[in-house]
Write a structure and sequence with these properties.
302 residues; alpha/beta; UDP-N-acetylmuramoyl-L-alanine:D-glutamate ligase; nine-stranded mixed beta sheet; four-stranded mixed beta sheet; 13 strands; 26% strand; binds adenosine monophosphate
Amino acid sequence: MSLLVIGSVAFDSVETPFGKVEDVLGGSATYFSASASYFTDIKLVAVVGQDFPEKHVRFLKKRGIDVKGLQVTDGKTFRWKGRYDFDLNQAHTLDTQLNVFASFKPRIPEEYKDTPYVFLANIDPVLQLEVLGQVKKPKLVACDTMNFWIERKLKELKEMLGHVDILTINEAEARELSKESNLVKAAKCILSYGPKAVIIKRGEYGALMFSDSSVFSAPAYPLESVFDPTGAGDSFAGGFMGYLSNVDNISDRYIRRAIIFGSVMASFDVEDFSLNRIKNLTNREIETRFRAFKKLTHFEDL
Ligand code: AMP
């Protein structure tokens, strides 16, 4: 099955205690697409400016990503600048320049409209809603968001949440959105906005999925070298949605396996800056780490 994504394609400038990069390839849809491309066919909807280099488009194409929905318009590409301190779980946004996204009107190519799996990556909830308005009854719609939109577009965000099946969100942002400090209460509150499941991403502590009928907890892979957490959430979502689209099964069993594939992809992403680690993985590396996750969490019933 194929998978449609809308989200940001960006230039990121990032500083962590272990190094610094400027104007490197980033964006929620970029990380998502690169990660999901190991599992399924991706159709990307986004906008970039005239300053977006051809080499980045070539990279997306090389990963098999369909870029017919990537518009190039006059103006500058979206830019995000962030910093992480020793607590790598918390990103500090220093600057966000929406640039070409400020006036973007997504146009979904005709052949994208009946894509069965849809991911609304982190971007203005108004754009996420516009995309939902143009697709025909997808089998599964999931989305992401962040504090930037919770603080600026709460009404639109809540409206969008009424139309999706799954929300993936950071721990701190789950608290901010629900105004609850307890994560079980936060999840309950978020489920009341409409999604059937919410996956709370907890950085180095893993991920928790809540639905009306089940709770699932996945650890993060214990890594010795973490350089840059940027894109971990989007890489997680890419592995998660990519796997579901690949197996075309959204039962609880498969959702749990998908959360582990998401965690696998996030664990690769944080090992280097930008998309450096996830751009050239092998299926064998992905399988090996999936098996390592199984070992990590396995215990016997006595
Ligand atoms: P994450 O997976 O949560 O680490 O997301 C990191 C990516 O989100 C970066 O590559 C940024 O370019 C992108 N980003 C940051 N702020 C925003 C925003 N307000 N809207 C859309 N994308 C953003």
